[in-house]
């Protein structure tokens, strides 16, 4: 009788151990599934963020040159900022902001569609200041230098894409030796940097600043 009871007890213990083992296997399988699923989501998110970051940098804007018009030997009264898009994407200049600062003063300028010239110029450096499309106050104008597909032709939403070059035109006084810094900030993508120090004397009417 005792032997029979002990055999039954051992059988019960064995079944209990088996149940616990199966439960542990199931828990481990579920945990592994959750980990794999989470890892997959994180990998996808990282890939998406990486692609978005790459696209954002690639689709920005770059400043190629800054020139000024010297009305006296010590004062510049106009600035022209040559910009072009980076290799990826298009830039709508109607939503692009230009910031410029001299010392403690900082200005934010927006596009003025009434100061728009889409007649393509070649280089523009020598004759650009003969044009009349110059922004004033808190607005900037636009003069197109290169545009093979006429994407900048519409005054309300001029858009630059690969290969395009335009001048952002500003009426602004800059004294000799002044340091000017700022950004061309598109709606999406990397900003173009404006940074220069004006020479002590302007010996030419058209001055290359950056």
Automatic annotation (TrEMBL):
Subcellular location(s) per record: Archaeal flagellum
TM regions (residue ranges): 12-36
GO cellular component terms, A-Z: archaeal-type flagellum
BP term (GO), one: archaeal or bacterial-type flagellum-dependent cell motility
Known function: Flagellin is the subunit protein which polymerizes to form the filaments of archaeal flagella.
Family: Belongs to the archaeal flagellin family.
Protein name: Flagellin
Native organism taxonomy: Archaea, Methanobacteriati, Methanobacteriota, Methanomada group, Methanococci
Gene that encodes it: flaB3
């Amino acid at each position: 009788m005792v032997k029979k009871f002990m055999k039954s007890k051992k059988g019960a213990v064995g079944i209990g151990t088996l149940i616990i083992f199966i439960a542990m296997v199931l828990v481990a399988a579920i945990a592994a599934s959750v980990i794999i699923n989470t890892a997959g989501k994180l990998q996808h998110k990282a890939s998406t963020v990486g692609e978005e970051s790459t696209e954002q940098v690639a689709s920005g804007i770059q400043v190629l040159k800054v020139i000024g018009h010297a009305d006296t030997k010590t004062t510049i009264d106009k600035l022209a900022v040559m910009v072009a898009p980076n290799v990826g994407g298009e830039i709508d200049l109607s939503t692009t902001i230009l910031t410029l600062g001299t010392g403690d003063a900082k200005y934010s300028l927006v596009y003025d569609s009434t100061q728009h010239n889409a007649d393509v110029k070649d280089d523009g450096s020598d004759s650009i200041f003969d044009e009349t499309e110059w922004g004033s106050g808190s607005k900037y104008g636009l003069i197109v230098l290169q545009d093979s597909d006429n994407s900048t032709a519409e005054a309300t939403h001029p858009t630059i894409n690969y290969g395009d070059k335009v001048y952002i035109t500003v009426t602004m006084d800059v004294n000799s030796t002044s340091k000017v810094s700022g950004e061309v900030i598109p709606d999406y993508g990397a900003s173009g940097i404006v940074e220069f120090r004006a020479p002590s004397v302007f010996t030419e009417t058209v001055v290359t600043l950056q």
